[in-house]
Amino acid sequence: MVAAFLRSASPYVTIAQAKTSSGDRLHLMGDLVKNSFHTDFKQGGSLTFLLKDPEGATVTVRHLGERPANMGEATQVVAIGGMQGSEFVSKELLLKCPSKYEGKRVRAPSPSDRCR
Any keyword Transferase (predicted)? Predict the structure, then answer.
């Protein structure tokens, strides 16, 4: 059972680590470079985009699954897959999108707001 767990464990890696690692279950997390994604119909409708990791490196990600509906709203992406040549090829994407509550500030009540 321990051996099965270790085989299925999938580490988070940077782009530099992904380039020197083998396997197709690596988790590559980073910021989605805005306006860099498009559907490549020559490659079977795959989605490609640029991902920038926390160390500042960028890589092209080719996603072979369905394009997530909220891809245009995503700010961060975890691509699960592995390197194939100079691209990171993923079969699964996890997206982080800004919350509708993010960035809204609520003004603290002032003494003049109190009911009399």
Answer: no
What pLDDT score does 98 carry? 76
Quick one: what percent of the chain has pLDDT higher than 70? 75
Answer yes or no: is 116 within a domain.
Answer: no
Are residues 33 and 77 in contact, defined by beta-carbon separation less than 8 angstroms?
A: no
Does 106 reside within a domain? no
Give the pLDDT confidence of 21-46 residue by residue, as tens digits.
Answer: 988 999 999 999 988 988 877 767 78
Alpha helices in the chain (DSSP H): 2-8, 15-20
87: in domain: yes
What ranges make up the beta strands (E) of the chain? Answer: 12-13, 26-32, 38-40, 46-52, 58-63, 76-84, 87-96
User: Is 1 part of a structural domain of the chain?
Assistant: no
Structural domain count of the chain:
1
